[in-house]
Specification:
Elements (H helix, E strand, L loop, with lengths): L8 E2 L2 E7 L2 E6 L3 E3 L2 E4 L5 E4 L6 E7 L1 H17 L4 H14 L8 E6 L4 E4 L5 E2 L5 E5 L2 H11 L6 H15 L8 E6 L1
Antiparallel strand pairs: 1-4, 2-3, 2-11, 3-12, 4-5, 6-7, 7-8, 8-9, 9-10
Helix pairs in contact: 1-2, 3-4
């Protein structure tokens, strides 16, 4: 099948919310091929502990590509223990300049409970302006919902869950089967 004929994989919404000394990363479980749901219970949010330092990561895009990036990030964190920002920048530099890594199609949200970043293949390491970030097919819906909910008294997990519910109601590539991980600094 030619690339132009391939319907494309879709499906994932990942959100990160920082509030009250906690960061919550939540992701849905849907993977779609074209207009067909292939799986509804994928796990795209993971707790990792490279070098004994806890972190949570969520990914959108190709699963194999995301795991490749997570392995590289873990190696960077083991080389610079406790320095998430530096490890993220080093990963983004490699991702942007390495011919093999340039072909990877995924995005990551990572946190150590203190810092919260989005890492992209364009060489970006982005820290959210409003303590909320989101990626994936329904990311903009979840982001808009969460930004509105940040003006309430809800905690980080409640905001993440409600925002993901709103995204699932709007985006056909997002479902309500959530994986939620919470981490504190």
């Amino acid at each position: 099948m030619a690339d132009k004929d391939f319907p494309g994989w879709h499906g994932t919404t990942i959100i990160g919310v920082r509030r009250g000394g906690k960061v919550v990363v939540a992701g849905d479980g849907q993977v779609s091929l074209g207009q067909t749901v292939i799986k509804g219970t994928a796990r795209k949010v993971r707790r990792l502990s490279p070098g004994g330092h806890e972190m949570v990561a969520g990914f959108a895009g190709s699963t194999a590509d995301a795991f490749t990036l997570l392995e590289r990030l873990e190696a960077k964190l083991e080389a610079t223990p406790g320095k998430l920002a530096r490890a993220c920048v080093e990963l983004a530099k490699d991702w942007r300049t390495d011919k093999y890594l340039q072909k990877l199609e995924a995005m990551l949200i990572v946190t150590d409970g203190r810092d919260l970043y989005v890492i992209t293949g364009a060489g970006d390491v982005l820290e959210p302006e409003y303590d909320v970030t989101a990626i994936g097919s329904g990311g903009n819906f979840a982001l808009a919902a969460a930004r509105g909910l940040m003006e309430t008294d809800l905690d980080a997990e409640q905001i993440a869950r409600k925002a993901m519910g709103i995204a699932a109601d709007i985006c056909v590539y997002t479902n309500g089967n959530l994986t939620v991980e919470t981490i504190t600094a």
